[in-house]
Amino acid sequence: MTALFTHDLGDGLGLALREEWTVEPLHQLILENLDHLRPWEPWAHGEQSVDGFRIYTRGALTDWIEGRSLPAVILQDGAPIGVAGATIDAYLATAQLGYWIAARHQGRGAVTRAVAAILDHLSTTRAIQRTEIRTAVRNRRSRAVAERLGFTHEDTLRSALPIGDHRDDLAVYGLSPGSDPSRPGHPSRQHPRRDPEAVQGTGRSVVDNTNYAS
Ligand SMILES: CC(C)(COP(=O)(O)OP(=O)(O)OC[C@H]1O[C@@H](n2cnc3c(N)ncnc32)[C@H](O)[C@@H]1OP(=O)(O)O)[C@@H](O)C(=O)NCCC(=O)NCCS
Q1: What is the domain count for the chain?
Q2: CATH number, domain at 72?
Q3: How far is ligand 1, taken at its centre, from the CA of residue 30, in Å?
Q4: Fewer Cβ in 10 A, N or C end of the chain?
Q5: Per-residue model confidence as pLDDT tens digits over 89-118
Q6: Ligand 1 centroid to 52 CA: how many Å?
């Protein structure tokens, strides 16, 4: 049985499982933040019905029970202000992270703290050996979260991320917390920031299925 997931992140911030009670407040938060989310999140361009959101949340909770996801909500004084989560491949012992936070709660480290707690949970309770963050190359704030947590910018996939009516280049960040500390990707290492434009794509085709909010 999987343990319940809650974390105190300090300063009134917390992280909890994205249970049914979060559906309506998170849906409302998304509607209030569509202009903030649409430049970065493919799902924010689709229909935002509360019923669709409820179905998505129930599916994510089922995936959690079956070990395929960790859907979490970021809380401020008990109220949802964003989400952070992971899709998990238990067979490969890998996970892919996703996150967003309401515009007015940016800039306080809430997301970095939430993702750090998720990383800890994934490595200690799920034995995850490799974690990825995939984000638009031009998403400076999202890339800063990855770099702050010691992820390595491993590759850039050209036109891999559809956003509204255009496609963005996608930066792939990787972290291997279970690896030898001397290897790239380990959080204890200092990573020089790499110019994304200097990293050439590999020609791999990638489908980004991350969808933590709709
Ligand atoms: C990407 C996104 C989640 C980043 O949010 P964020 O608020 O910048 O990230 P954090 O909450 O970790 O805050 C980091 C900031 O808090 C500061 N900070 C304060 N206390 C901190 C702490 N204890 N730990 C870490 N950072 C702290 C950092 O210095 C940083 O400041 P800066 O913005 O001046 O550089 C947010 O911009 C967002 O939701 N964007 C829209 C959706 C999106 O892009 N999602 C990601 C798709 S891949």
Answers
A1: 1
A2: 3.40.630.30
A3: 17
A4: N
A5: 999 999 999 999 999 999 999 999 999 999
A6: 28
